[in-house]
Amino acid sequence: MTKKIDRTRKLRWLMLALTAASLCLGVAGPVHVAEAQEQRYQRRSILDFFLGRRYLDDSPQPPDVQQPRRQQHKRPPAQKAIVNTRTAPPARAPMQDEEPAVQKLADARKILIVGDFLASGLGDGLTAAFETSPGVVVETRGNVSSGLVRDDYYDWPEQLPKMIDEMKPAMVVVMIGANDRQQMVTDTAKEKFHTDGWFAEYRRRVLAFGKEVTDRKIPLLWVGLPAFESDSMTADAVQMNQLYRNQVESIGGEFVDIWDAFVDENGNFIVTGSDVNGQQVRLRTSDGINLTQAGRRKIAFYVEKPARRILGTQASPDLVRLDSSNLPGLGLPANPVEHTVPISLSDPNLDGGAELLGARPPPVTLAKSPRDLLVEQGEMTPAPSGRVDDYRLPATKAPAEVSVK
């Protein structure tokens, strides 16, 4: 009995010694990945037998083994990134694919845009519209809080001639009036907005402002006001647009109406609508007054058409004239007009007469037509001989006489 107890004590001491040794080895240093993989294929020891441990292949991996495995997986991408960096093109290489800006010509014609904050937005949109036109340069000289009423804040009649003399524009575009709904101080009195005296003085100022351009024989485009979220501002914009149109057209200018661009089919103010590409976008800001970038470009779309028409081919150098000088070689005669006379599809002589049907009464005939005989009397004209509906018996021929000698 004593021998069994001693043997049991020895085994316990042996187990404790082996456990302490394994702990010391674990603390001595971390197990590397290669070492951990090698341990997975070792045979069980006597300690595993007594403690009832399974093979290391069946047991979960300890944390100190998994951590080096994660580090090992991270290393290859880092090395690969270094290699790619060495062989990659320079940082400016992707910029080569971008379309370069069009270089403006030295003698490019200038479009001068003047007015308030709406004119400044129009300048941004019109600059984008003529970005690919080397023969056109857009110059914007807008003052955000200016107008034709407060000349003490910014005197447009004084500044406009200086701008024209300095830049010598080929065209002047005006968009102003959104800040003019306020009291006007004249030489004799203070006129409140909406009064007859206010509108009389305002007409005079609009006319004088436009004449600063037209008297110099420079084309003038006056852009109307858009609708606003405020009903009162919208009603005032309608009245002022009519004033602008009448005064500008009386001095040879052209009024550009943009009203339909910012209202729906019922004439109501809209915040979101179609842009120049037909996509539904936000056109106005949250205050219901200012324009988004898409709204500015949409106003420029309305101004771009008359501007290109006035500037001519220099504003659109990419257009090709479709005349005889640009026709491809199709083997046609040098002057096809001499060989083929143009024919109008509406020419009345094409049907052999110069009058419409019914212009003169039909000729009177005594004999009735086959239609009248069929409808009125039920008589059908005989079918032509030999036709399938000719049911008449063929005429019999008389026998030839035989002479007897």
TrEMBL record:
A molecular-function term among this protein's GO annotations: hydrolase activity, acting on ester bonds
InterPro entries, A to Z: DUF459 (IPR007407), SGNH_hydro_sf (IPR036514)
Region Disordered: which residues?
Answer: 57-97, 379-405
Establish whether keyword Signal is in the entry. yes
What are the record keywords, sorted? Answer: Signal
SUPFAM superfamilies from the xrefs?
SGNH hydrolase
Q: What residue stretch is flagged as signal peptide?
A: 1-33
**Name of this protein:** DUF459 domain-containing protein
This chain's source organism reads Rhizobium pisi
